[in-house]
Every structure is written in structure tokens, then in C-alpha cells.
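Lecture 7, part 2: worked example. A protein chain together with 6-O-phosphono-alpha-D-glucopyranose.
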Amino acid sequence: MTSPSQTRLTEEPSWQRLQEHYEQVKDLHLRDLFAQDATRGETLTATAGDLYVDYSKHRVTSETLGLLLDLARARGVAEQFEAMVSGQRINTTEGRAVLHTALRAPRDAVVEVGGTDVVPEVHEVLDRMSAFAESVRSGEHTGHTGSPIKAVVNIGIGGSDLGPAMAYEALLPFSRRDISFSFVSNIDGADIAEVLRGLDAASTLFIISSKTFTTLETLTNAHTARDWLVSQLGSDEAVAKHFVAVSTNAEEVAKFGIDTANMFGFWDWVGGRYSFPSAIGLSLMLSIGPDQFRELLAGMHEIDEHVRTTPLERNVPVLLGLIGLWYRDFFGAQTQAVLPYSQYLDRLADYLQQLDMESNGKSVTKSGERVDYQTGPIVWGTPGTNGQHAYYQLIHQGTTLIPADFIGLARPAEEVGEHQDLLMANYFAQPEALAFGKTAEQLREEGVAEELVPHRTFEGNRPTTSILLPELTPRTLGQLIATYEHKVFTQGAVWGINSFDQWGVELGKVLAKRIAPELTAESDAELGHDSSTNALIRRYRSLRGR
Ligand SMILES: O=P(O)(O)OC[C@H]1O[C@H](O)[C@H](O)[C@@H](O)[C@@H]1O
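Predicted complex, written out as C-alpha cells:
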């Protein structure tokens, strides 16, 4: 097994050289970098699949990039990637392989875990999903009373919700419009109540998606959905035709009352936040159809191959990871904005928040030592141009450095009048304004009153990546998502953390389980929390009349 460098990250010679280099270049302005090299906007670009990635508007020189690549080599990023895709148990705290790349491997590929090739199982499930999706879409699969399915409700949370919900929105132009799709995740009863309100039980299919099938939110929503269906259709037997499960846990699925013949499985080597190319994508497949779903997988696979076979200096996810790390660890940037200029990518930032923050929100290394550097950033964003009229002010003139990804498309699914060119004019304008700004001299030349000059000056030097896609299709969406997956991988590999566990979500769950009965108990004498939590619970109980 190839093991990453054992040297402490901050003691790596390449890290220390980056530290010295940072002191030399931290004040360099993008205006000067562009003035010194007229070809910068063409040379500092790379492609991966159909993605064109311009990283020239970053505060990097060729020396910066060289040092970052040295760091990636010293930390064995390529070797660590190879260890992941070849099935080694790189999720060490859970003793698991990490093989979301196998979910999109072609039929003839071989990927072994513990001596067993997993690719045939992957395709067996995909084939079963395809057959089921076809039968629902064609009207062959009917509900208990013989009605074709007209509404699909995915019940899941986290990785069992965000991927399909994001991709369903992104690929609406590819979706069946005569079937409605809803995604219920929150345990707040409002979520399921509002979805059920408009539905006809006889033509509704529920997909209960949960890797573990023990998640409180999902099981609570699933029970509510089942009670509703049974009361609407007047028979327990209706459940069989209206509920399917997606899970790794057949035992719990059977306990819930779903026949395991109606279950689509996946495996412990698929992390929740990496699971939407697995059976977790069933709702998406029902919406766009099996062929388009396979296109999405093919797009992801193209990027998996790109990462494996492209030298690091042209390797897009590796470059994006290293540049992100440059800001996080050397400039101290705390956040990373993701700004898609496509309304269809409305849920992208939500999806990337789990992908990035649950993966790299860690403060100990794989061997358990506290890190002495920064790890994962806060990821946020909304589609342009809306944000321009809200928070971009702070990105342009605030005191915080916010590296931002601008994602744009050439050919929109909806050509409406001049909308697309006006949208894209903004997509090009914002990174230009952020990089080059506007100087006091320019303002004075324009005759701006002296007292307004400081207010109207744009410092510039705000870094951005521009990602340009020909169009948004299942294939290009797959490419985009896999690019971000491997960007996150690259950063985790350099930081030496385990990007594939999520122990940090456990404590709150345990406490909620303890508190739930305290909210409804007859007497509150036994509250044993801190004084703040105790007082809040007592107040809540009294507001609820208990
Ligand atoms: O799919 P499930 O087992 O229901 O888990 C759903 C989600 O909940 C957990 O708390 C984890 O933080 C997520 O990584 C996971 O995606």
C-alpha cells in the first residue's frame, strides 16, 4: 500500500517554500500579473471533459503553481488517488474502501475490494433500476388501484437527498414533465405535510432513501408517508406498490415493511455524500430516464479518468484543489463562493456544502494529531445574477477575501429573447471587475468628486475561477460534480485528513435522542443538562402546555 508522506505537513520543504514565497507575492496585483504576461488568460487554463477552466485570475505566478505542484507530489496526491480507486481501505476510521468511482466504471472494468470485483454488482443494480424506471415511466408499473404513477417522492436526507434533488433541478429540461418529483428531507412536519397536500395517493410512489435506514428524519417521514398512504387507500397491502427502498441495510428495510424485492442496494464503500451515482439516484433516473442517467455516469467517469491519467500540471481537480488550499492556508481565506450563472444550478451550492464541508471539516490528521494549519473552507453561493444585487458588494469592497468559482454555460436549455447573452455578460463582467477593480486615478479622470473617490474605488485583486460549459446536460453535470469531488479529495490528501468519515455529526444526534422523551415526559424533574439547555427545555415545555 502506498502511504502518504509521514512528514508533518508544515514541515514539508515544499510547504515551507510556499510560506516564504507567500511573503514575496502576497501583495502582487492581478493587474500587474496580466500586464506582465499578455498570454496569461490563455495559458493559465485547462480542460477536463467539456469543462473549460480559466484559473488565470488567481493570485498565483508560475512559481506559485510549481511550488503547489511540488507539495502535491510530496504528499503523494496521485498515489493516494490510485489507492482510493483501486479499493484500498483509505477510510481508516471506519475500515472502509472508498469507491464512488466504481459506481460509474464501465461494465468491463474490474475493481476489487477484498478480492471481489464489485463492477458486476454495480451494473446489476443499475440494470434493475433501469428496468424499474422504464416500467414506472411507461405506466406498466401501477399503484394499488391500477393508476399509473404521476408523482414520485424521494424521502431521504444529507447524501440521500442533496444529490438527486440538486441534479433533478439541474436537469429539469431532460425530465418527464407529466410526473411530478418532490424531495422530502426535513423532520419538520411542514416538509412532508406540504408535499402530501397536493398528492393523489393512488398515483404516488415513495422512494425511501437511506444508506443506513436508521436515520431519524428519514424513518419518521417514511412512517408518516406510509400512514397517509394506507389511510388514503384503505389497505396495508397498498404499501407494496407505492414504496421502494434504496439502502445498504436489507434487515432494516424489511423491518420497516418494504419487501426487499423492492429494494435497490448499494455498499458500505459508497460514502453518503458520494452516493448519488448509486441507487440513491433512483428518483433522478425516474425523472430523466435510464439512458440519460448513464450519460451522467459517463461524464463522471471521464473526469475520474482525467484525474488518473493527466499530469498534475494540467489536472483540473488537482489544480483547483491546490489553488483553493493556497488561499485557505496562506491567505487565510475562510470561505469559498460557488456562483453558477444558471438558474437550473440553484441547489449546487447546497450539494457542494455537504460534499466539501462534511469531507474536509476535520481538525485531526489520519493518525489523530491536531492539525496546525487550516482545513476545509465554508462553501456557499447562489445563482448569478441574483447575488449581484445582494451580497456581491462585500466580495467587491469588503475586508474579507472570498475566492469565487463562476460557472457559466454557452447554450441554455431555455433560449428566451436576449436573456442568455445578458446573463453571460454578467458572468464575464464580475470576474473582470473583481480582478482589476477601479483605481482612484481612473475615478478622478472620470471627474468623480474627491470625497466620493474612496467609496467608489475598487481595489480589485479578488480571485476567481471561471468554469465554462458548452451546455448543461447529464454528461456535463456529471463532469462538473466529479471535478468538485476530486478537488475536495486533493485538498484532503494534502492536509492528510480522512475526507471520508463524519464523526462530527454524531454528538448532536445522541443528545437529540436523549432530549426527545424529555420534551413530552410527565415531569421535568430529571433534566440533567447545563443550565441554559435546561431552561430552554422548560420554557419550550411550558409553551407547549406541558
Ligand atoms: O443515508 P442515511 O444513512 O440516511 O444518512 C443520511 C446522512 O446523514 C448522516 O448524518 C451523515 O452526516 C450524512 O453523511 C448522510 O448522508
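The chain has a mean pLDDT of 96. The chain has three domains: 35-59+328-472, 100-293, 506-544. Keep this in mind for problem set question 3.
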